[in-house]
């Protein structure tokens, strides 16, 4: 038991979230550099070279230089075993991103110092708040011209509704970015550029040291002294409980590209962020230190290895220890099984593992039996983790196959990709039409869907955009759904679990439906 407890206590499992181009993938790579997991950071933007970011593996990602699917990476740093869930930041991200946050115990929010809080950050932040998980903020790109740090903090507080606590404070920005002041240790970390290599030369100097002027310049020193006085007078004391409940975000400033401030951030973050948190199953708390193994499915990815046409299911371990070839119960399928080829995945690199602990993410070969949200546990302990919500898609299209002879492949492809959660598929229950309506969270998913249907299932599709922007699950209806009073541009659809939904072109139509149908209840999220 002692070893189990020690192993679980050193686990840290977190997601990195941001708007596109805020530098999230670069920050992830720098973490991997510090952990010795990679020897060279591959620039994401360097499309002309053969270096692609370690965490991007899908062909379409390499072509575009962006992260489309969520990657999972594990590495060791000092005495910690770290699982990073790298989520897509692209504005055309998918529901996969939301689900990945369900597997994390905390989140690192990366914000561009010149742009501040952006649209995608708001959406991802909402999901973190829904789960009350700790959120740490890294204000990146201080090596470029940036907004006033006080304005950035104010914007985070106003737009995201969370209090902030600057753990360090930047000295200058752009070419004048000289380092950061550590508020707890009361000293300055002055950085020297080192071509983005693993180690950045950092000099620690006391705030009142005579050599400070020579390091950061008199003007920077005077500004810093004023800022520190203002911070100490105006900001609340640091409250770890508020951080752990997701009400206060510790804020760090730095530059992932030049490595300025990355290692101090990583070290402080690992101290403050919690080890694996308990999960809930039917109102019962599942303790991570319980010796019985349990896990849930948060991601399914088909065809990661084109040569094998495989399907990998990603499990977040919630309690106990996993051992290769152990017998487990798949609760939803009510079936005992052995999880074959358990793997840890570093983007495309895979390693067969013999053991893993609560907090770890493992990939297992899936013959097609798992669904998102399924529970796997020790055979003697039967329970179901609370389901992962299905998030409302915002873009819709009607799709059909060009070649009528390929109906079978079309059905297989749409069903499998929908099971992974990248798209949602619907049909019109009372129309007699065979066409499928696809809903996605971000429009890039349509392209990914077409690309995969053609390359993995050999099916060309015809896609016709639909004007709908809002979808609601019908949680309660006063009459049979087909008898509801609805505006002409509202459509009734069913998902593949046969739940009824309404899709609308505007918020006005949603209000109209609720006003005209007394007793109708609609939901924005849905749990199976």
Task: Please specify the SSE layout and strand pairing.
Blueprint: H1 2-9, E1 11-18, H2 24-34, H3 59-64, E2 71-77, E3 80-86, H4 95-102, E4 106-112, H5 119-131, E5 135-140, H6 149-160, E6 163-166, E7 168-171, E8 179-182, E9 187-192, E10 201-206, H7 212-216, H8 218-234, H9 240-244, E11 248-253, H10 262-272, E12 279-281, E13 284-286, E14 294-302, E15 311-319, E16 321-323, E17 327-330, E18 335-338, E19 343-346, E20 349-352, E21 355-357, E22 361-365, E23 375-377, E24 395-401, H11 407-420, E25 424-427, E26 436-440, H12 444-457, E27 461-466, E28 470-476, E29 490-495, E30 500-504, H13 507-516, E31 521-523
Parallel strand pairs: 1-3, 1-4, 4-5, 5-11, 6-11
Antiparallel strand pairs: 2-3, 7-8, 8-9, 9-10, 12-13, 14-15, 14-23, 15-22, 16-21, 17-18, 17-23, 19-20, 24-26, 24-27, 25-26, 25-29, 28-30, 28-31, 29-30
Helix pairs in contact: 4-5, 11-12
Count of domain modules: 3
Second rung of CATH, namely the architecture of the largest domain: 3-Layer(aba) Sandwich
Question: What is the average of the pLDDT values?
Answer: 82
Described by the principal axes of the CA atoms, the overall outline is globular
How many DSSP H or I helices?
13
Q: Write the CATH homologous superfamily of the largest domain.
A: P-loop containing nucleotide triphosphate hydrolases
